């Protein structure tokens, strides 16, 4: 059995026997036990020492940012994470007053969602950092293709709904950045988001497509009642939260339906 299969075995097994709502391992557990993202080595006996190094590096970078007055004790924590990431990646702007770039907004959204999942600030920073790096590196070529895949699978599931979106000129204006660049951070609540990010971390960004498709199918009547792209987009950016768990479960069903039982289908 491959490493990828071992990591996803429990999730795949429960889903095959019909238990769609079983809570999967939290993102923190997956990331800390998985050497593929470069957070910790595979040997657990080394974790304490590595975490000591990580905490030291975190403190050093934070101190440097305070010295150059990019952050202070009053700076929101997610912004601190962003400045640390910028400094470590060589992208720190000349002044903290410079406007944020789109990729900075993505980082902040993911960091804010991660903050709800992970209590320790050092862990939160390192996990956010590596999650964003995975999106920017491993999925760099895949993410721009997801809107096209979304249209393809929505057509297979409900061509009439897709026709309505086209008639309203809404297809090109759907919240793709929220769905695919931010991986639904700020759209789904933490409990549902963890299940989606579990699949992303395990190697599949395509799950994002099926979550988006299922959102449209779940709120079909509401979307069909809206007759312009602005209203449709505004609604989809602020979907009711009480349906999110069911949406994710059905999205996983769709994923299996169209892709078999993928271990890490990208």
Description:
The protein is mostly helical and 266 residues long. It is 64% helix and 0% strand. It is built from 14 helices and no strands. The protein has helices at residues 3-16, 27-33, 47-67, 77-88, 102-117, 121-137, 146-157, 159-167, 176-181, 190-202, 207-218, 220-225, 229-237, 244-259. Helix 4 packs across helix 5, helix 7 crosses helix 8 and helix 7 (146-157) packs across helix 11. The longest helix is centred in the N-terminal third of the chain and has 21 residues, at 47-67. The two termini are 19 Å apart. Residues 1-7 and 16-25 have low confidence and may be disordered.
Q: Which percent range fits the helix content?
A: 55-70%
Rg calculated over all Cα atoms: 20 Å
Q: How widely separated are the two ends? A: 19 Å
Secondary structure tally: strands: 0
Strand proportion: under 5%
Mean pLDDT: 87
What is the topology?
Layout: H1 3-16, H2 27-33, H3 47-67, H4 77-88, H5 102-117, H6 121-137, H7 146-157, H8 159-167, H9 176-181, H10 190-202, H11 207-218, H12 220-225, H13 229-237, H14 244-259
Helix pairs in contact: 3-4, 4-5, 5-6, 7-8, 7-11, 11-14
Structure summary:
The chain is mainly α and 266 residues long.
Search tags:
266 residues; mainly alpha; 14 helices
